[in-house]
Amino acid sequence: DLLVAPDFLWYFRATAWLLESSGNCRTEKDPSLFCVSAWNDNGFQVSDEKRLFRTDYFPGLGWMIQNSTWSHLRQVWPRFPSTGWDHWLRHGSGLRPRECIVPEVSRTHHFDTSGTNVKAGSELAKKLERMATSRLPPKQLGDLSYLLHDDYEAKLMELARGAKLISGSQLGGLKGNEVYLLPYIRSEYSTLAKQLQISVAQPRTAHRG
């Protein structure tokens, strides 16, 4: 039930080394990653097909892990889970706070409307239909070392220091080439999410959230 982008396979090939550097040996460069996903849960109004980011919220819908990670998961996978397997990976697998690499513009598109969780005409089906899908050809992602933990944290701090501080009432008419910082409390999330046209039910794609 997934359509894949032109660079779907190349995307995983280009990012595999990030997981290889997060193995179990004592000399690993970055033990903070466990997966690469082709899906952005908030990939509605997005445009930069080359930009990838990190999230501790497991996204699903096309993903890659190391064999060693799967060997661990299969030993603890619940026989009778009370929630979906993706919810278990997020909250019951013990993988958090390790993170996943995610594209700004998704490399998969969910099209089935007759499954267990997605029904034709449902709010979820309408939401998935709005998702952008990359058309980037293979071999265009460039140097991805910025996704390694220390480099990523340093860049985030640099962006945060230079960001313009705003409130929820200022969300209209923001410039696409500027960085904004919007502090909020949990009870304000759904209102802000509706304004931003992202997932409303719960925060997704957070980093260290």
From TrEMBL:
GO molecular function: alpha-1,3-mannosylglycoprotein 2-beta-N-acetylglucosaminyltransferase activity; metal ion binding
Keyword Glycosyltransferase in record: yes
Location of the protein in the cell: Golgi apparatus membrane
Domain of life: Eukaryota
EC top class, as a word: transferase
Membrane topology type: Single-pass type II membrane protein
Main location: Golgi
Transferase as UniProt keyword: yes
Enzyme nomenclature, EC number: 2.4.1.101
Pathway involvement of the protein, from the record: Protein modification; protein glycosylation
One Pfam family hit: GNT-I
Keywords of the record: Glycosyltransferase, Golgi apparatus, Manganese, Membrane, Metal-binding, Signal-anchor, Transferase, Transmembrane, Transmembrane helix
Catalytic activity of the protein: N(4)-(alpha-D-Man-(1->3)-[alpha-D-Man-(1->3)-[alpha-D-Man-(1->6)]-alpha-D-Man-(1->6)]-beta-D-Man-(1->4)-beta-D-GlcNAc-(1->4)-beta-D-GlcNAc)-L-asparaginyl-[protein] (N-glucan mannose isomer 5A1,2) + UDP-N-acetyl-alpha-D-glucosamine = N(4)-{beta-D-GlcNAc-(1->2)-alpha-D-Man-(1->3)-[alpha-D-Man-(1->3)-[alpha-D-Man-(1->6)]-alpha-D-Man-(1->6)]-beta-D-Man-(1->4)-beta-D-GlcNAc-(1->4)-beta-D-GlcNAc}-L-asparaginyl-[protein] + UDP + H(+)
InterPro entries, sorted: Glyco_trans_13 (IPR004139), Glycosyltransferase_13 (IPR052261), Nucleotide-diphossugar_trans (IPR029044)
Cofactor(s) the protein needs: Mn(2+)
GO cellular component assignments: Golgi membrane
Similarity comment: Belongs to the glycosyltransferase 13 family.
Protein name: alpha-1,3-mannosyl-glycoprotein 2-beta-N-acetylglucosaminyltransferase
Organism: Polarella glacialis
